[in-house]
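The material for today's practical consists of a large collection of protein records. Read left to right, the backbone structure tokens trace the chain's path through space. An example says more than a description, so a record of this kind follows:
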Amino acid sequence: MLGDVETRSVSPIFVGRSDELGILNTALERAAAGEPQALLLGGEAGVGKTRLVEEFAAEACKQGAVVVTGGCVEIGADGLPFAPFSTALRSLRRTLPAEVDAAAAGREDELARLLPELGDRTVPGSDARGDESATARLFELTGRLLERVAAERTVVVVLEDLHWADASTRHLLSYLFRTLRNGRLAVVATYRADDVHRRHPLRPLLAELDRLRTVTRIELGRLSREEVARQVAGIMAAEPDRAVVDDIFRRSDGNAFFVEELAVSAAEGCATGLTDSLRDVLLVRVESLPEDAQRVARICAEGGSTVEYPLLAAVARLGEDDLIEALRAAVGANILLASTDGDGYRFRHSLVREAVSDDLLPGERSRINRRYAEALEDDPALVPAEARVMRLASYWYHAHDAAKALPAVLDASVEARRRHAYSEQLRLLERAMELWDEAPEEIRAQLRMGDYAVAYLSCGCDPAETRLDYLDLMAEAAAAGRLCGERERALKIGKRAIRILDEAAAGGAADPLRLAWFWIQRSRIISHIARGNGWDEIAKAQELVRGLPPSAVHAEVLAHAAAWGMLHNPGGETLAAAERAVEYAQMVGDDETELHARLIRGGLLVDAGSIEQGFAEMYAVRDRSAELGLMARISNVNVNLPSHLEGAGRSAEAVRICDEGVELCRRFGLTDTKAWVRSNQAESLVSLGRWDDAVKAANWTSRFALSDKPRATATTHLASVALGRGAFQEATDHLAAARRYFGTHDPQPQHDLPLAHRAIELAAAQGRLLDARAELDRLVTAGLPPSLQRYIWPLLLAAAEAEADARGLPAADAGRAEAVARIRDAAKRQATPVPVWQAYEQWVRTELLRAEGRVTPDDWSATVTALEPVDRPYDLARARTRLADSLLARAEGDDRDRATELLRLASAVADHLGARPLAESVALLAQRARLSLTRDVPRPDGPADPAEDFGLTSRERDVLRLVTAGRSNRQIAEELFISPKTASVHVSNILAKLGVAGRGEAAALAHRLRLFPQPTA
């Protein structure tokens, strides 16, 4: 290796960039204060990004920060998966070994996919077929690792040359920029702006990050003439002639790297006017080197961003002394530099490498890549172990040797899959499919399914002995595309595979199991990309496997059919499909599919009324999934189990399971699963009367969920709390957001029914009874699905309450009997397998009697008695208020004392929850009856008219009475002998005093609070 070689093409003076350096230093200060920073630094090639980052890093180190750098590696046109993160984390571990090991404790095997030194990347029991949460899990664990290391000290992570980043690196960077929340951490990523053309894969990421307020973007411009003069002076160590500066500025156009190259050429006596091509200027400097040095430079240009010295020696085939002299000449001319770790060489600037590489002849480039590949095959230790497979695949591919490239590329695809770098796996598999026909038959015959394929292993044969075929590659590629989010590409690959299999079937070579497998993959993708609900594809798969002997594919098809049915059409047929899926999976020993089907079966049993049997099954699945380390099933059960517990009225148990699930998700990095769990927890917290906690949980999901559906469920729960608190516009906004998140491509009862429930509540609260009726009529006409009593009973209750509250309103009379009959008929068809829904059945029955004017205190007493054991304080407070009202209307014996106690209890709950409508109802009922809601404090005589509590004038009371009766402004004016304009002013004042948004809501409030009691018949 070389000792120090003196060169002078970089100015010792840092020129300009004061504004940009100020932005970076400000970010450093914020990071040091505990506010994570994300910065993007862009600029054209050679403009000075690296120098700016070096100056910033030096200043950060002076302030005690730990600075680590990782560069995106380009090998030909290939990037290594996660290369900059692996390099940066390795550097971080060298600097802070104890801190990194402590932060990674318990998750070493997962994090070893980025930093192999931490553990074993082949985790026993992990999902062999590909876990859809695997990549997100790795990303979350990486983010938490960085946050923990940066908890006590400032850490700066610099990621250079993002324009060369592989897709997995881009996805991880995007994830970190969106989710870093804690720690004294700054992440700075640089990219070459002039390379990011319209179709460049980095462009969508930049657009996405631009929308994040937490990301600071810096665009580095060119140097001014004065700055160029200062730079040239620094390089020449003397004041240059004005003519030289003018010429260099004209030709470089202020690009810092070109200024350096032209200044060196001028200092060495080269004519700066020799050519107008700056590329030629770079090549002239290379061509001025000795022949061996030029040869070494050409070899380095094809080796990648950095070439290890032993590998370079093996490829150059020069004597050691000759190689050292050639390197000394190249380093002395500032063409090459020793790498920062001292083990290899790189070009001083990528522009020089690109110029040298572009100047290679086609045959010369293939020959150099072949030499690299042969050297690496002869001695794999020439490069780091984690890069070996990928680099060998790239070298053989660019050597244009299909016989060698095909197995090497397949090996690289397996390595990418092990690292959860599914984007790179897909790219490599597409390359393998491109090479398939070019590779000799004898090479293809040696490839075995067991070495390369895991997606489809249902041929009934021994994978270790079965030849790999082209359809195996297509299956792997389709699965990789689905897992990395490239679903359109996966869809195209699957479509082509289905066409190939259909053509084979037409020729008498049918493979129904493999064809069914591709249809299931298509179903999963179709539903993800909003092209449909996926059922047609599942039906085709079912038809293909019908009548065939049990197999893993058959079990998988049945499990997917059961999963679809659970979401869209729960009932006996779906339960039967789940039963068959369990049976078939057990026959063929497919643990993962068996647990999937058992989880579905358990949930369906709970919904069907076999409560304890269903929950026993779900708890068993939870334990077994954890034992086997099947993360997909662990994710599913921690979402499904608390949801079904809530559906059975076991809200406290659901919250406890959610707490355990949140901790598990935090430990394993399951961010999106955590969002689902927190949303489910919010639902149970609403039931338990812990509304503030519910809002926190739902807001967390809305902010941090990675997909839309957990956001949709969370905003639905937020709408529920907003309705209870009387924030009707907020509820309207939440419901609109939930509908956007759910979309329209895949309607599911578990989503539609809660939205309809809140829509009916909102319409009733705003005095839009006809809208509430229309919503219920739509659902009943379409048919209320079976086994979903957890959603249907609250919906029917809301509809019944709307009818009862509207009794006495003229606009509600028409159609009331039909609406009540419709609700009563729907209620008869609903099951009541647990106490909470038995209580709701009683409550609905009582509300319908109230809607008909036939309710008695005994009816309400039965409702309160049914609700008291089920631990739903808000529901109980509402029912107690109704019972108190009924008792006060009867006014017999101790009815008044009982009503007083009931209203006090309801008032305490309403105040605790911030339930304004309920609190107002209780207060006005107490006021009308002249009851004190405070113990031992006699209530002073209140106003005869409760409308006075709102500060309404006598005229405004008259106007509100007519608004409640459904009169228009013109009709009000005619009846009160005022102008329509005056009537309009009165209405506006009334709305403001009542705190409502519209006439319907004002009428509903007046009616609910009995501001104008109707005469009894």
